[in-house]
Structures are given as structure tokens and as C-alpha cells.
Amino acid sequence: MKAEVPNLGKVPQHVAIIMDGNGRWAKQRGLPRIKGHEEGAQSVLAVLKAAKKAGVKYLTLYAFSTENWIRPKDEVEGLMKLLGFFLEKHSREFLKNKIRLRVMGQIERLPADLRQKLETVMEKSAKDYEHTLIVALSYGSRLEIAEAARAIARKAASGELDPETVNEETVAQHLYLPDVPDPELLIRTSGEMRLSNFLLWQLSYAELYVTDIFWPDFREKEFLQALEAFNQRGRRYGGVVTQ
Ligand code: IPE
Ligand code: IPE
Ligand code: MG
Questions:
Q1: How remote is the C-alpha of 34 from its chain's centroid?
Q2: Considering every ligand atom, which ligand is closest to the CA of 75?
Q3: Could you tell me the CA-to-CA distances from 221 to 134, 185, 202, 209, 230 in Å, in that order?
Q4: Which member of 92, 116, 183, 192 lies 3.0 to 4.6 Å from 14 by CB, making a disulfide possible if both were Cys?
């Protein structure tokens, strides 16, 4: 526990967030949806800072799902531009704060210039880091699991792997980021009670925290409230109550 955040108790080492409600936040104010995404980017900075301060080692943010490609072309283009702009503006800060950037999802579907920017920051930030920011981009959990199954099947067919040895660990090892521990806490903003194809495997035992607050209004205070709520949960993993 860090001195700056007293009374937090046990802090999850990995927090995953479904950042939802940008469009509704904008609509409420009579603004175009992209303004909600822009304000949401400020929440990313605030939460990133708060997570680092609290001692969270991994923060995974759902920024764009495989399903989000069906949104209007100008919204998709606006989001991709915003991401590129965000990286340009803040990558130096990431490096200074020892934050490593990683991406999970179909990077090959992203515009080439954005991909290039992501790769540059990922490479630079991998050298010296204390915290990891994982951005799920063009990410879909069923696709991730299907790809893992394909990779395992290929190894079995070539004789590299005995099908009889395939177990949970084998599947976990073939997901996008096998070295990252499972999130202990999932936060979803804007009140929706669903996973929307996010980390279905990895969230098996995560505590779920849903708040009605729209993502652009979710800042340090709200993040700390979620950590506090996490602390109140009795995690049993299928066992009996011990406290
Ligand atoms: C989340 O906000 C951001 C993305 C999915 C990219 P939404 O854009 O889904 O906002 P709502 O759900 O329409 O309010
Ligand atoms: C989930 O939000 C995806 C991201 C936050 C990137 P959506 O707004 O796309 O999810 P649904 O449509 O409400 O399930
Ligand atoms: Mg939404």
C-alpha cells in the first residue's frame, strides 16, 4: 500500500475497465458523440494516474471492440484519430511515469499510421517500466479464444503438442497476453450489466463493479470508490466464507 492513498487496504494488481457512456454523456449536453470520446480521453489520463498512485500494476481499458466497427464511418474515423492524437500528446508522459503500453486485439485492422504510432510507443515503453497500460483495440474475446483454439489445434496437428495434455493452462497460454495475470476487478461505467465480449476467459473470478456514471465523468474519486468497493468483497473462489 502506498502512503498517498491511505485506507485502501488490498489493491488489485490488475483492473479492467469497460469505458462506456461517452455517447450518452455527449447527448445529454447536446454535443456530437465525438465530444464524449474526447472528454473520455481525459478520464483515461485521470484513471491512469490514480491507478498508478494506488499501486495497480496492470490497467486494461476496452477502447474499441470488434463489434464497434459497425458504427458510422465518421465515428470510427474520429475515434481512430483521437487515439493517434492521444498517443502523440501523452506518450512522453507515459515514458516519464514508467508506464508500459501494450495492445490486445486485431492491430492489423487499425489504420496504418495509428498502428505505427502504437508500435513506436510500445517499443519505447517496454524498456523501463513499473506499470502496464493495456489497450483493447478491435478486441473481441470470442475471437481471442477462437484464435487460441486454432493455434492449439495447429500444434496438435503438427505433433508439437499432445491433444490429451490440453488443459486450462494451455488455453491461457495461447491468449493474446499470456504473461498478464487475470484482472481481479472489472469496472463498467454507464450502468450496463453486460460484458460485451470483453475478457470472457480472464474475468472468470473477477469482482464486477458497475456504476451509473458515464465514462467522461469517471475520474480519480470514482476510481478510488471502485477500489474501496473491491475491498469490501469477500472473495471465495467457490470455497466457504473464511472471514
Ligand atoms: C464507449 O462509449 C466508447 C466506445 C465504445 C468506443 P459509447 O460510445 O459506447 O457511449 P454510449 O454507450 O453510446 O453512451
Ligand atoms: C463496449 O461498449 C465496448 C467498449 C467500451 C469499447 P459498447 O457500447 O460497444 O457495448 P454495448 O453495445 O453496449 O454492448
Ligand atoms: Mg456504449
A1: 20
A2: 1
A3: 22, 17, 26, 15, 14
A4: 183
Write the burial class of residue 47 (CB in 10 Å: 0-12 exposed, 13-18 middle, 19+ buried): buried
Set of cell numbers at residue 91 = 506518450
∠176-178-183 over CA atoms, to 5°? 95
And the C-alpha cell for 211?
456504476
Q: pLDDT digits over 30-65, tens only?
A: 999 999 999 999 999 999 999 999 999 999 999 999
The residue whose CA is least distant from atom 1 of ligand 2 is 196
Please state the atom number of ligand 2 nearest to the C-alpha of residue 23: 8
Domains of the chain: 14-231 (3.40.1180.10)
Is 162 an active-site residue? no
